[in-house]
Amino acid sequence: MRSSWSEPFLWIHLAGLAVVPLFLGLCWVFLAVGDPQLPVWVEFLLVAGIGIAPILWMQLTRPFYIFSILVLAIKPSHLTSDQQRLLSLFKTPIHQWLASVGAILMLLVLWQIYQVAPLATIVGFPLTSRFLGLFLASLAFLASNLFLQVPLSVLLVLLTNETKLAATEPFPIVKIFQDFTVPGLQVNRILPIADKKLAVVNNDTPQITPKQG
Predict the structure, then answer these.
(1) Into how many domains does the chain fold?
(2) Which residues, 6+ apart, have CB-to-CB distance to 35 below 8 Å?
(3) Is 212 within the bounds of a domain?
(4) Is residue 50 part of a domain?
């Protein structure tokens, strides 16, 4: 088994793919609200710009700091050398290429959703403002892009072979805040898994009793 597969943060963020259809569904519903007030291409570019541009820019310039969950992030100083190596993989050109491909894919998906938006009209839906609907659709589409782009980059790391990972230089701790988007509050640890592993290692390590003189 590849060592990267034992990193729980990678699997947690890969699971984010599961909510992409949910947010796309919300985007579809909100796009059906009200009657169009702007030209089709204006509405489409508005939702696409808000939903795609921020996430794509983040992944191209300062990728998402993977050692975080919701509003908590592990302090860079508490990362292991293996975790720093994983961070280095997120800064490779192939990740930028994959982020661009993901953005194009989502643009095509949005166009399909926009075209069939009237089918999602809900009778008696409390929201009637077209502009508010477009705004909420943009936020839902933004969330869908976030939960697609981050797992795509994680998947690429999980597929990295052990030889390449071992040859990767640990990412410098002092540059993490500069080169990654670190969300939320920094803490010493989030998951107890690492502590349990350390405990197992300590228990399995043979104890050497000094000879009595």
Answers:
(1) 1
(2) 130
(3) no
(4) yes
Domain that holds residue 110: 3-204
Cα distance between residue 175 and residue 21, in whole Å: 35
CA distances from residue 22 to 108, 140, 173 in whole angstroms, order as listed: 17, 9, 36
Query: Beta-carbon neighbour count of residue 207 at 10 Å?
Result: 6
154 within some domain: yes
Query: pLDDT tens digits for the chain (213 residues)?
Result: 577 788 999 999 999 999 999 999 999 999 999 888 889 999 999 999 999 999 999 999 999 999 999 889 999 999 999 999 999 999 999 999 999 999 999 999 999 999 999 998 887 788 889 999 999 999 999 999 999 999 999 999 999 888 888 899 999 999 999 999 999 899 988 877 544 443 333 344 444 444 444
Whether 211 is in a domain gets the answer no
